[in-house]
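Example 9 (inverse folding). The structure is encoded as follows.
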């Protein structure tokens, strides 16, 4: 009896070892948790954050846009988004993925990606795909027609997000060059920030911009959303390690440090300049710190995170003021100066501070600090130029079929009523 038990136990060991090499349950549990956290960032985190920042007559329009984009991107991701971002594109693989995973073909119960199920990897990446076009909403808030927003978001997702995601994370040319983007400095933040400011410029400023105050209607809602974004970002950056280990732990630590430092820096600048600190300033500084640490979060240590958060708070504050007061561009919710500039800074910092002498994870194989920073700069430039050109072309194309902007009367009445026949508040 005992000998039979030992015999079957020995037969089972290789199978157990193989199973352990295929799927790690700890890693899988962590990425499933991270997936939920990143989705929480869009619904309700970003929706509440943006919703509180607009005027009360437009609050539902922002919530509706975030919700609709979540649904739309999910459908597109299943049809072909995942495949175009992460499958092998054959002769075109430098630029875009292939069709092998259309309609999630091959994403079965038993399919494995690294040490986690392919279904979990696909869903995790889907949440990144959802929040990126949702961030762009902040550039055209309070004035874009809902139908135009949907068509624009579909095309922008297909022609901006998916190619750049493949370039960096799916085996494309920037990834092959050795670009360091741990969680989306180029893929998410630069694309969203640049896309938002181009859209704001094409649509033009809101009626009354710079002639009357357009204050956030509900800062309580905004601060609540900001808190959800901060917590959700642990899944955003920590989950990008795709494993529950030291890389994920350090990514979460530096994410928190940079967020806190960025928020505190922005608050202090306002306090010194205007005599009083503001809730709007501290939450905006938090997002600046989070966006800037994102590309570097898996490559730097705590002291670098302090530096990144401090620089993010100061530079993004200056960029916000310059864009609104000097250039007078109505990027309504400051997407470009916070996410765009933050993503650019963080991508460069990832190359500069990854060296072990700064407490980072060490340089990529064969890279020196100078050459790595050069690769990072190429990534920033390529992402920025592609996003500018394609966003502009998409907007012009959409305008051929539907008006991009609501009429002046509709803008005065508010998008809640004119676009959805609803009100956020029934006073």
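The amino acid assigned to each position is listed next.
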């Amino acid at each position: 009896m005992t000998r039979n038990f030992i015999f079957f136990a020995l037969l089972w060991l290789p199978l157990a070892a193989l199973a352990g090499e295929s799927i790690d349950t700890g890693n899988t549990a962590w990425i499933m948790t991270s997936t939920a956290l990143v989705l929480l960032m869009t619904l309700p985190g970003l929706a509440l954050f943006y919703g509180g920042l607009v005027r009360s007559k437009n609050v539902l329009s922002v919530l509706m846009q975030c919700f609709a984009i979540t649904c739309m991107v999910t459908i597109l991701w299943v049809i072909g988004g995942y495949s175009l971002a992460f499958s092998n594109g054959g002769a075109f693989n430098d630029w875009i993925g292939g069709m092998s995973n259309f309609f999630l073909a091959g994403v079965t119960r038993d399919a494995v990606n690294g040490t986690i199920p392919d279904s979990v990897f696909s869903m995790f990446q889907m949440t990144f795909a959802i929040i990126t076009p949702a961030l762009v909403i902040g550039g055209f808030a309070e004035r874009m027609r809902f139908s135009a927003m949907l068509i624009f978001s579909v095309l922008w997702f297909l022609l901006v997000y998916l190619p750049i995601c493949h370039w960096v994370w799916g085996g494309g040319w920037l990834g092959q060059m050795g670009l360091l983007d741990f969680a989306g400095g180029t893929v998410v933040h630069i694309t969203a920030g640049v896309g938002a400011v181009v859209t704001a410029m094409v649509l033009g400023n809101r009626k009354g911009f710079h002639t009357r105050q357009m204050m956030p209607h509900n800062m309580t809602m905004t601060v609540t959303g900001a808190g959800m974004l901060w917590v959700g970002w642990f899944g955003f950056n920590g989950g990008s390690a795709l494993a529950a280990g030291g890389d994920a732990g350090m990514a979460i630590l530096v994410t928190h440090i940079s967020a806190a430092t960025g928020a505190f820096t922005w608050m202090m600048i306002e306090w010194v300049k205007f005599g009083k600190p503001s809730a709007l300033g501290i939450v905006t500084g938090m997002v600046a710190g989070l966006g800037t640490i994102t590309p570097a979060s898996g490559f730097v240590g705590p002291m670098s995170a302090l530096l990144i958060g401090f620089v993010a708070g100061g530079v993004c504050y200056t960029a916000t003021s310059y864009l609104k007061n000097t250039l007078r561009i109505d990027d309504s919710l400051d997407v470009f100066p916070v996410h765009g500039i933050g993503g650019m800074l963080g991508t460069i910092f990832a190359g500069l501070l990854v060296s072990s002498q700064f407490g980072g994870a060490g340089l990529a194989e064969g890279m020196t600090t100078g050459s790595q920073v050069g690769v990072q700069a190429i990534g920033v430039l390529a992402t920025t130029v592609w996003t500018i050109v394609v966003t502009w072309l998409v907007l012009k194309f959409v305008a051929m079929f539907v008006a991009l902007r609501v009429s002046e009367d509709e803008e005065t009445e508010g998008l809640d009523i004119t676009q959805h026949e609803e009100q956020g508040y029934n006073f």
